[in-house]
Every structure is written in C-alpha cells, then in structure tokens.
Amino acid sequence: MAMKLHRKKRLTAIIASVFAVSIVVGLVLYASNQKMNLFITPTEVQAGIAPLDRIFRIGGLVKDGSVKRSETSLRTDFIVTDGVADIKVTYDKIMPDLFREGQGVVAMGKMNDKGLFVASNILAKHDEEYKAPEVLDALERAGHPVKKTAQDSKGS
Amino acid sequence: MWTWFFQLASPKWVFQFIEKLLPWFRAITLVLFIAGLFLGLLYSSLDYQQGNTVRILYIHVPGAFLSMFAYVLMAITGAIGFIWRIKMAHIVSVSCAPIGAILTLLTLISGAVWGKPTWGTYWEWDARLTSYLILLFLYLGFMALHSAFDDRKSGDRASAVLAMVGLVNIPIIHFSVEWWNTLHQGATISKLEKPSMDADMLAALLTMIAAYQFYFLTVLMQRIQGEILVREKLTGWVRKLVIASK
Questions:
Q1: Which residues of B88-109 are buried (b: 16+ CB within 10 A; e: fewer)?
Q2: What single string gives the DSSP state of each residue in A8-30?
Q3: Cα A124 from Cα A61, distance rounded (Å)
Q4: Which of A70, A99, B9, B22 is deepest in the core (most CB within 10 A)?
Q5: CB B101 within 8 A of CB B136
Q6: Shortest alpha-carbon distance between residue B51 and chain A (Å)
Q7: Type and span of the H or E element at B107
C-alpha cells in the first residue's frame, strides 16, 4: 500500500521528533545518573562516593542480628549492609513499622568522624514479595491452636 | 474486511456500535468489581510483613497499570489521527485523557496512603514516584493544550504531538525501579517470570485489573459518544437523534 507523500512526511516528522526527544531525555538521565538515585549503597560509601561533609541517604538491608535497642531511650543502633560492605547506623526517633532485620531500609543523615552514620530520618523499604504468613500462625490467631513441632515453630 | 475498517472511521457507525456494546460492558464491569473487591478486601490473605495494609495493592496497582495503558492508547490514536487525519482517532485520543488523569491521581493518592504506614512517608522524590507524577502533568498538559485552541483541528494535532513526545516517559516509569535506587520496590508481576505473590492475592489482583480495564473501556466509550455528539452536532443524524430523544 503506497503512502501519499504528505502522510509519509507527517509520519517521518512524528518518528523523528519522538526519536529526538527520546535521545535528549536519555542523555539528560544518563548525565544525571548519580543524582537520580535516591540513596547510595554501603559499598559506594566505602569507595568514597559519599559526600561526607553533607547530608546524604544510604540504603541496604538491615543486617540480621545487628539491631540493638536502647532500654532507656528511643535510640536504635543497627548495621546497614549490601552484602559486601557494612555501615553502622544510629537513630533516636520512632522507627517505621516495617523496620526489621533482613528488610530494606533507607536512612538519611550524616557520617560522624567515628564512621557512625547518624540518621535523622529512616524509611522502610519493602520488596516485591507478597505472601501470607505461615498457615500455622494464621490458624493460631483465628483461635485454632495447632501443636507445633520444634521445626514448625522456627518458621521460614 | 476493509468495510469494517472504514466503518471504524465513521462517527455515526461508531456511535451506534457503542450503543449496542455499552450494556454488556457496564454489566461486566459491575460483576468484575464486585468479585475483585470481595477477593481483594475480604477473601485474600494478609501479607506476612504488612498485614491488612497490603489490601491497598488491589486499588493502587490496577490504577497504575491502566493509567499507563490509557496514555499509550491516547498517544497511538493521536498519532494515527495526526498522520492520516482521521477524525475518529482524535476523538478516541481526546476521550482517553480525563480518564487517564483521574486514574493517575487515584494511584498517587492510594500510593501516598500506602506509603505512610509501610515506608514511613507519604511522598519521596525517588525516580519512580517523580516520573509517575510527570505522567499526571502530561495528562493535564494534554487537556490544557487541547482546549487552548479555538480551532478544534489545530487543538487535536497539537495535543497529539504532545502525547506522542510524552510517550518517552512510559518506559522511564516502568524501568525506573531497575535503573536507579528507589524507595519503590520492583515489579511483582512480569510476563517472563513467576509472579512473586501468593496465588489467592494474584487472583484478586488480576480480577481487579480486569475490572479497571472494563471500567476504563466503558467510560471511554461513553466519552467517545459524547465527543461524537459535540463534533457532529450539525449533521442530520445527530439532529434526528436529539429530536427523537425529546
């Protein structure tokens, strides 16, 4: 099917402009790549990417077994890890509900001179997994206690 | 086969065809919403981390999906109208915009309500949230630009160009969670991999997506009818229709 010339011209103009805008946007995004990131990882902090004199955000997982809550104040100490590097973090306000060991976290704050990250704000990240809690737990909550073996009670 | 294709470009034929389809689409939308809301809000299981809060998902995710679907449809029909000067294509394109804008707003609001209890904030300027906010501005810009012209044809063409150029934002929204570090988590459902959610939750989500899809199509068809009546108000068949309805 042959296209009439003026239609072909319009088609070319449209494709060319969409293509041009895509390239412009792509280059802008590429150039501001680091700025587009909400946080930097512990590995990047150790590599010296972090602006140590300014407030910045780090993100990673809360290391298992690292959370220490103060008994006299709201202060919580924990370690943020990306599997390669660790960073010690301290925070003295109320934690979001989803903050727990093994879960993602984004902390905003500043490095002090002892290498401790003093957070002024903590956000919990959650992953893309959605699943029901253990069936046993659910049954128990509904008032049907089930005899647990040692293995069951460990959970997954 | 070609007669069907050419009929699609005739506003009168489309108006009457929609008239036949509408009752079915309204019924399917209603059934799907009842089923989806029952599955999502009552039947599906709680999340192991979020508990009941996870149920916002069944409002939020279909809204996000459909608002982007509506944008792509708006841009493609705009392009068809721009290149081949087909009136019906512009009518569809213009009718998409307000529905898409409302769905975008719904997704932003439900996302904020969801973000506060889970992340600890209503809003964060991460790449996903920001690029999605731009989608709302693209919709609003499209509608403003279209209504800024006295001549409807010029408005159609100008806003079609805006829609097509703004199409670049759609892959940015989708891939933002992979390209950059964001607070928003990655995709749960992808075509290639097994979805990372329990089967009963997935059933509820898919039902809600279908419900939103049919809702979108139903409202779209009604808007198309309205747009046809406005644009064809001087033709004989519209006059007859108006007189008959009085």
A1: bbbbbbbbbbbbbbbbbebbbe
A2: HHHHHHHHHHHHHHHHHHHHHHH
A3: 10
A4: A99
A5: yes
A6: 9
A7: helix B87-118
Q: In tens digits, what is the pLDDT along chain B, a chain of 246 residues?
A: 667 777 788 899 999 999 999 999 999 999 999 999 999 998 888 887 788 888 999 999 999 999 999 999 999 999 999 998 899 999 999 999 999 999 999 999 999 999 998 898 999 998 999 999 999 999 999 999 999 999 999 999 999 999 999 999 999 999 998 888 888 988 887 766 777 788 889 999 999 999 999 999 999 999 999 999 999 988 889 999 888 887
| B48/A131 Cβ within 8 A | yes
Q: Where are the beta strands (DSSP E) in A73-152?
A: 76-81, 86-91, 104-111, 117-124
Single-letter amino acid, residue B163 = A
SS3 state at B120: coil
The packing angle between helices B87-118 and B199-231, to 10°, is 140
Rg of chain A (C-alpha set): 25
Minimum distance, in Å, between the CA of residue A154 and any CA atom of chain B: 15
- Write out the residues of chain B at the interface with chain A, using a CB-CB cutoff of 8 A: 45-50, 54, 57, 79, 82-84, 117-121, 124-127, 161, 164-165, 167-168, 172, 179-183, 185-188, 196-198, 200-201
Fold assignment, A38-155: OB fold (Dihydrolipoamide Acetyltransferase, E2P) (2.40.50)
The residues, any chain, with a CB within 8 Å of residue A24's CB and separated by 6 or more, are: none
